[in-house]
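agent: user wants the structure for Cellulose synthase-like F6 from Urochloa decumbens. delegating to structure tool.
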Amino acid sequence: MAPGGGEGRRNGEQQANGKSNGNGCVCGFPVCACAGAAAVASAASSADMDRVAVAATEGQIGAVNDESWVAVDLSDDLSGDGGDDGVAIEDRPVFRTEKIKGILLHPYRVLIFVRLIAFTLFVIWRISHRNPDALWLWVTSIAGEFWFGFSWLLDQLPKLNPINRVPDLTVLRQRFDRADGTSRLPGLDIFVTTADPFKEPILSTANSILSILAADYPVEKNTCYLSDDSGMLLTYEAMVEAAKFATVWVPFCRKHGIEPRGPESYFELKSHPYMGRSQEDFVNDRRRVRKEYDEFKARINGLEHDIKQRSDAYNAARGLKDGEPRATWMADGSQWEGTWVEPSENHRKGDHTGIVLVLVNHPSHSRQFGPPASADNPLDFSMVDTRLPMLVYVSREKRPGFNHEKKAGAMNALTRCSAVLTNSPFILNLDCDHYINNSQALRAGICFMLGRDSDTVAFVQFPQRFEGVDPTDLYANHNRIFFDGTLRALDGMQGPIYVGTGCLFRRITLYGFDPPRINVGGPCFPKLGGMFAKTKYEKPGLEMTTKAAVAKGKHGFLPLPKKSYGKSDAFVDSIPRASHPSPFANAAGDAGVVTDEATITEAVAVTTAAYEKKTGWGSNIGWVYGTVTEDVVTGYRMHIKGWRSRYCSIYPHAFIGTAPINLTERLYQVLRWSTGSLEIFFSRNNPLFGSTFLHPLQRVAYINITTYPFTAIFLIFYTTVPALSFVTGHFIVQRPTTMFYVYLAIVLGTLLILAVLEVKWAGVTVFEWFRNGQFWMTASCSAYLAAVCQVLVKVVFRRDISFKLTSKQPAGDEKKDPYADLYVVRWTWLMVTPIIIIIVNIVGSAVAFAKVLDGEWTHWLKVAGGVFFNFWVLFHLYPFAKGLLGRHGKTPVVVLVWWAFTFVITAVLYINIPHIHGPGGKHGHGALGRHAHGHHGGKLGGFEGEAYGWP
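agent: tool returned. relaying C-alpha cells verbatim.
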C-alpha cells in the first residue's frame, strides 16, 4: 500500500459522509459507519485456556496463544505493517484479525481436493463392480456412498478459510470511555428467557440476572429484561430477591474485580487469585457477602412454600367457599395477575394477562458512591459506584386459541417491549441458565459492531460453554468441533450461524432493514452470486430520517408498511431511534428512560396475544416462526439480505450455561434441533432458494445444517447390514481388487490427516474429536432418525410437532457425586434403535467368531475386517451403553461384562445348534458355504467421514 493512500481514502470517506477532519461526524452518533476506523479483527480462542495467562490489568482478555495463528492486516486504510504508531486513537481498530498459517491451511485445502478425487474413484469402482448375489445390498450401499460423500463435502467446504478475531478492549476504552466515568458506548438491552421455574432452576435464573447486573458495561447503557412465559409469582419474587441481593453483590464485584460474576460459580471456586486493589478488605468482604448469599439462597429455596402459605392465609381471611377460585397473593397484599398456584380461569399457564414490572429503575447518568463501613453495614463501598442497571420483569399475555410460538414469540414480545422502554440499538439474548462468566464479554461483543464496515454486521455469535459436564464429556455437550471448528471457519465467509443464545444483535436487523452495503463473495469472490437464486434484491441503503419527520408521524423510511409492525404508534415511532439514533442521542442521554404509568401500559399493550395478528412479526420481522429452531432460520433470513455476522470466542469464556442433566434429556435436545433443521429444509426458507446475496459457501453451510439428519437413514443400514452379513452370507462387495484397497487407503489416510490439521487450527483436542464422533453415532441412530420420521409425518399429514422443555434440574445427590444424575436411567423410545444396533453387532461378531472355530470359514483374515468394523460401531456407541447401564464409576465393568456375556453365549449357541448352520458343520455346503470365500466391504462417512473395508 502506498504511503498516505489509506489516509487519503479515509479523508475522502469522511467528506463523503459529511465529516470534516478534527470534528465529529455531523450525524452526531459516535459509533455510526462514518466515524469508525479500519477494523478487521477477531475474538480470542478458548483453545489454549491452559496456556493463556489472564492479565491482571483491567479490561484485558485472553487471546489466541498458538503458533497455528498469525496476525494479519486485512484493513484498507492502515499501513501494511499493521502498527498503531502515529495513528489517532479514534482511527485505531477495536479488533484485529488472525489467520491460520499457510503451513497448515494450504495442505488442509489440498487434502480436501485429494480426498474428493479418491472418493470419486472409489465410488466409480463400486459402481462398476456389482454384486449379483445381493443386488439390493449393492444398490443401497451405493446410495449410502453418495450420501456420505455429499454430506462430508457439505461439512468440509465451508471450512476452507478459518479465521480468528480478537477484540482490543484497551482501544475500546480509550475511544469510548470518559474520565468522569461516563461512556459513549451504545445502549444494550439483554433478554433472558425462561418458561418453567421448575424445569429451569430458579436459582440458576437468579444467578444469570446477577451476573448481568454486575457486568463491566456502562450502567446507564445496560438494561436487563427477563421474560417469564410461565407467568408465575415464584419467578417474579425470585427476581425481587435477586435485585435486593444485587445491591451488595454488584458493588462487591466492582470493588474487588470479582470473576466470574455469577455468585454460585464464584463461591464454588476452590482457589482464586485476588485481582483487586483492596487486599486487606477482601477477606472480610468476601465472608460477609458469602453469608448474604447463603441467606439469599435460603430465601429463594423457600419462596414456593412462602407464596403458598401467604396465599392460603389471604384466602382463608376472605372466607372463600368450596369451588371458588383461590388467588395467589403478592407480598404487598394484591392479587398476582399471572398464573396462580391453584390455576383458574384467566390465571393459568396459557391463559393470563400481560405483566411488565420494573424491578430496578433506570439509573442516573452520574456515579453514586455507597456509604462507608459502619456498625450496621460492615461493607465499605464509599469509593464504589453502587448504581444498578435497569431490571424489568415481563410476562407476555397468553390466551387460549392463540399460537404463542414458544421462545420465538417471547423474543418478539421482548423486542417490542424493550423498544417502548429503552430502545437500545443492540440486543443480547441469553437463556436463563447462561450466566456471564467474563465481565468483559459485553464489551468484547460490542467491538465487532463499532469498526469500519461493522454497520453491515447483523449479529455477533459467542460459543456455548457449559458447566456441570463430567470430565470425560460423555455426551459431547461442549460440542467444540462445531463451535471452534465450523463456526470459526464460517467467520471467514459471511459469518457464523445464529445458535439461539449468547448472540448480540443489531436491533434494526430484526425490523427487516437491509444492510447499507452488500459484498456477497468477500475478498475472494466479490462477484460470485448464489446458486438457484429465487429473488434478487436491489442494493439497499439506510435512509436517514429527521426528527421533524418522526414528530409528524411519517414512517416512509420503514422497510415494510407501517401496519406490518402492529398498531402501536409508540413502538413504530421508536424505530427511527434504533435505525439511526444520531439525531436523538444527546436528548435521550439527558432525559433518561421514562417508566411512567402510560409507558408501562404501552409496554404491556405490545405484548398482548393479539398484537401480532395480521402483522409481519414472525415472517418478515423479528424471530421467525414455523420451526422449533427459530434461531437458525432467523440468522439465515438476515444473511440472505446481505448482512454479515461475526464469531467472538474469548477466554475466560464469555457465557457459561448448564448442560442437559442426563442421556435422555440430551437426546431430546438433539431431537428438537434436528427436527427444526428439517423443518427449515421443507419450508420456504430452504437455503437452495435463497437470494444471490448469500455467500456460495455460506449457502453450502446452511444446506448442511438443514439436511444432516438424513444421514440416519443410511447410517442405520451401515451399522446393521455388515453385521447381519455374517449370518446371511450376503455381502456388499463380492471380490475387492487391489485398487479397491488403494482408494480406500487414500480416503482413510486423507481423512485422518485432515482431522489432525483441523484439530490443530481449531484448538480442540484429539479426545474431543473422538468424543464428538461417538455422540454423532448415538444421535444419528436415535434422534436424527426420529426427526426424519416426525418431519415426514408433519409434511404428509400436516400435523404439528410438540416438544417438552429440556430439564436441567438435577435430581441426584450432588454432594456425594456431582455427576450422579448423568447416569440415572430415564427410559425413552429414542434408545430403542441404538440398543438394537449394539445387539446386532455383538451377535454378528459372535457368529463370525463361531464360523471360524467351526470351520465354515477357514481363515481369520476372511472376517478380521468385518469384525473390526463391528467393534468400531460398538466403540462409538460405548458412551450410550455406559449411560444406559449404570452409574458413574461402576459402568465400564458392567458394559464389558454384558458385551462379553452376549458374545460368548451367541457363539456357543451357534456352534452347538446344528440346524442354524446346516448339517455337516464345518464341512457343510449350504448358502453360507457357497460364500465362504466371499468378501464384503463398507464405507461410512459424514462429519467424521470414516471409511472402512474388509476382506
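agent: one observation worth passing along. The chain has a mean pLDDT of 78.
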